[in-house]
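Input set for joint prediction.
Command: fold jointly, output tokens.
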Amino acid sequence: MVDKSILLDNKKFTVGTFTDSDKLLHAVETLRKKGVKIFDCYTPFPVHHLDHALGYTRTNLTIGAFLCGMLGSLSGFTLAYSMNVVDWPMIIGGKPQDINVFTSFIPVIFELTILFTAFGMVIMFFARNRMMHGIKEDLLDRRQTDDHLLIAIDNSEAQSLSNDEIQTILVNEGAVKVKGNVEAFNTSLTTEEDLEIVIGNNEGAAVIN
Amino acid sequence: MGHHTITEVRQEKFDFSTRIKLIPILLFVVGAILAGVGAMQAKESWDSPREEVTNAVNDHNAEATNSEAPDAHADHHLALAEANSDSSVPSTPEVPSTPEEPSVPEVPSVPDENHAKVAHEEGAHASVEHAEAHGNHHEVTYMTRVWANLLLNSYYFWLFAVSALFFIAVNYVANAGWAVMLKRIMEAQSSYLLVGSILLFTIIFLGKDTLYHWVQYFDGSAAGNPNDAGYDAILESKHWLLNNSSIFFFVPFVLIVWYLIRTKLRRNSLAEDETPGLDMFKNSTRWSAAFIFFFAFSFSALSWLIIMSLDAHWYSTMFSIYNFAISFVSGLSVMMLILQYLKSKGYMEMVSDEVVHDLGKFMFAFCVFWGYIFLSQWLLIWYTNLPEETVYFQARLNSHFKPLFFINLFMCFLIPFLTLMMRGAKRSPKVLLAAGLTILVGHWVDMYLLIMPGTVGDKADFGLLEIGTTMAFAGIFIYTVLHSLSKANLYPLNHPYLLESANHDVGV
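tokens >
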């Protein structure tokens, strides 16, 4: 997983806007082949193979899920054992109250395994993505959540190509709009005037095509 | 990782050369010889007492008073004793609750305590002593062990073919595309259906007098005669299913219908190779739907008739789905082993890791399914603690089958569960091979536990006979499957979902 904040403050981006996911995918591959480092792609829907094309490795979240499940199993066993055997032994159905009634613990263990894994995954997923309560999303383009697909390239990163060359490649790859100096705006700027200012600023950036 | 799209699937054919043919033939010959030697050994050593086993059984029973006290009382004589209360049960001196069970207070109202006095030690020998009550019809000889082995292996290998046919049908009905590249493997696997059905039916037909004690009962004088000392009300109530015409007519009827549907699906599949179009696909989908509907009922009835009636007094509503779980997970493992074998020989290289991964997921999923079904059966019987139900587990858990019981759980559930959980494991041929073999051996043990206690009982053993019979059947199975595999292209070339399967990628 790429180590980055989703908070895009104080960064300038070169943004290529696409309307076709295949073209976006091809553009990403072309850029990466030429050694350009891509900050991220923003798409309104999942694009197959984009994660491979961007060079993302597999998430380690599954290990966390396994650990959560193990924790849940242990908790379930401890809960059932301490209650039914240690703390308050109750004779149910004439069964002895010791480890031999392990069978009756299995539903508890099973349920707690599921519960811990589910909650653990939700919490870990949000934590890993820095999605805490109250956060507002950063947008580079208002239509990135609607019908446009973006490639964002961080201008402050050292690139193998000049910014103009990158923009030319993006245009050749079929971008409908390429901007050289975009700043993210935050949706916490709720008033229309604020948004106008941000968008107006971005409109002033270099536009090819 | 690139994502070039495959637009054309190369034609491939498996070459079943003489050298490869030798392997299953050798397996069969060696297996048959070993089985013969094993049978001779069993015959010679049959009457010599097996001290250590008897002791072990007693030990386990002593433990049972401690660990599962009410289970130890479980005995089908609770039900039977009402019918033949004067039958001469060899009463063994009762060991009352031993002093080393401090945490178990006497439960006041256990209804079957009186019977427990009579029949404490009988759980492990349930079927044997029951037969004695009926006048020694059910004499366990070494031939019982031979027949039980034949039944075990003919049923187990036949299940592979059945599950392959079921998997083909499910893929058609569900409109699933990912496994189309493997369809010819499934078809080859299901080609054993004919041979397997013939073997299975022959073995049931010839061995029924030795294997099923309800057959002996209904042949005897006590059947239908309430005044007879050997009259068995429970078996009488099951007479509508457990009778000779079920074996003569119902079993072959089901087997023939399945075989005809299998033939139809196979012919459609081969015809599709010649003529492109959707006609065959649509036709196969309809046949598959019909098959699944018929399969649900017929498979249940067959599993009751063939396996569950070995313990004719006992019944479980989970039994047929338990058999289905065994069938499906072991069938998928066999599919995986065939696929890995072909890949190691350089065939089927177009089957991507994604498809292998998904087949691995199926194996994993149905291991869990088996565990779930096992628990569902065991948990309810254990909790409810009805004597006529617990007798089944009594014979398996508090006897010398006890180690196998846990080996079964480990090999069929725990080991594959923890192994196949990892993503890398489902993509590594070596791990998949190991997991597949573990599952197959585990379910062989599972079948052993289903069949042996009800037939051979106390005298069940593991020796050359078991190994030899399994090898011989494996030889027949492998030969049939590879022979069928070599008869057609390895990919169903005009199947509408072939390219979807070739390009299959779920993006994980």
